[in-house]
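Researcher: Quick test of sequence recovery. Tokens follow.
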């Protein structure tokens, strides 16, 4: 038995519009959520055209010209904009009948390279029983025939398995949202022996240790510790007629252990400085409403907590390199404000997407990013800044 993908109906229209506009082929990403029983696809987004393609009206005719690096970079950028629980679930290609026999090979290559690039950035480890199948969707631009297959990304020799692709209306209209605020105070020593104070590397190592603490922490949902396998909605009152907006769990507390559970020997290390990450971060995860388990919800929220901090540090370092150059001299006390998190609602969905802005960034720049990365236009008044900046 192959996997079944339940797909937001609007995606069918989006893909159909793409197939009439872009010849001879167009690629893109599928975004959604995996669960043990079924997978949900709630957005599809085309690969943004490169600058030279925008000016050049003649598009490349052979699949050999697919720019793998461009597509994987797009996937990495998009994954930063996804709140907990959502991920890049697969890749699609819409191609003319002449190109269809090469499409499957192209898709297979893309799926593995996208997954490799996303895994490299993650600070959390996938769970044992986690779904590792990713979707390869092929659409013929002439006949509109849809073929969906999956590859197991844990197995480099994996061959294609057939999968069902089923459209459903209002699929993402009533998902459950889990919100929490996490106070961060991470102290990362910089060893005197570490070459040229590689801040980025040291920060990543420090975040790695902190992410293990988050993975091992206890979550209180509405003041209670709930058993992993209980249903998240158990004991929740069903509001009659309230199917439109998703249920919100905003009273979630994260209890991290002080120190580690196993005793370790103390070491003395000579340090030449330290990095401190401090502040309150807003975290959010979404979960489908088909009998979700507590452990699925908590896992999604843990990953959002870890991702939001590591993504921000990554964005800050990218910004510093662009603005100050990689070889910064001197090692004085400096304060950098990490970018703030914001959330943006998507049409027809209770699920919001996320992004980050620096203090001096205008709403217009955020709107441009949503159009480029997600092919979605966003109203300036719909951009909700989730956090205070405390200097």
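Model:
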């Amino acid at each position: 038995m192959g996997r079944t993908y339940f797909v937001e109906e609007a995606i069918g229209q989006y893909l159909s519009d793409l197939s009439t506009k872009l010849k001879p082929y167009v690629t893109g990403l599928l975004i959604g959520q995996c669960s043990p029983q079924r997978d949900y696809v709630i957005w599809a987004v085309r690969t943004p055209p490169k600058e030279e393609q925008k000016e050049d009206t003649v598009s490349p005719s052979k699949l050999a010209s697919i720019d793998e690096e461009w597509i994987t970079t797009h996937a990495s950028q998009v994954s930063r904009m996804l709140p907990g629980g959502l991920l890049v679930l697969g890749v699609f290609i819409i191609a003319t009948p002449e190109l269809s026999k090469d499409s499957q090979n192209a898709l297979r290559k893309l799926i593995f390279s996208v997954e490799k690039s996303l895994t490299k950035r993650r600070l959390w480890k996938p769970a044992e029983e986690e779904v590792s199948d990713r979707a390869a969707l092929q659409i013929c631009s002439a006949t509109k025939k849809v073929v969906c297959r999956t590859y197991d990304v844990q197995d480099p020799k994996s061959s294609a398995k057939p999968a069902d692709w089923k459209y459903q209306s209002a699929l993402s209209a009533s998902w459950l949202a889990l919100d929490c605020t996490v106070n961060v105070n991470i102290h990362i020593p910089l060893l005197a022996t570490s070459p040229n104070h590689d801040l980025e590397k040291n920060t990543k190592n420090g975040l790695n240790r902190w992410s293990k603490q988050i993975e091992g922490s206890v979550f209180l949902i509405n003041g209670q510790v709930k058993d992993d396998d209980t249903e998240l909605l158990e004991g929740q009152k069903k509001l009659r007629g309230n199917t439109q907006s998703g249920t919100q769990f905003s009273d979630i507390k994260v209890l991290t252990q002080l120190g580690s559970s196993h005793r370790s020997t103390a070491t003395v290390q000579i340090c030449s400085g330290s990095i401190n990450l401090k502040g309150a971060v807003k975290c959010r995860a979404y979960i489908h409403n088909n009998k979700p388990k507590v452990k699925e919800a908590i896992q999604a929220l843990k990953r959002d907590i870890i991702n939001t901090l590591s993504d921000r540090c990554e964005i800050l370092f990218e910004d510093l390199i662009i603005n100050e150059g990689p070889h910064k001299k001197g090692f004085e006390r400096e304060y950098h404000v990490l970018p703030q998190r914001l959330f943006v609602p998507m049409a027809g969905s209770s699920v919001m997407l996320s992004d980050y802005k620096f203090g001096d960034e205008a709403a217009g720049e955020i709107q441009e990013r949503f159009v480029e990365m997600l092919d979605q236009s966003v109203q300036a008044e719909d951009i909700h800044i989730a956090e205070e900046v405390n200097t």
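Helices lie at 9-21, 51-55, 68-80, 100-121, 199-215, 294-324, 363-374.
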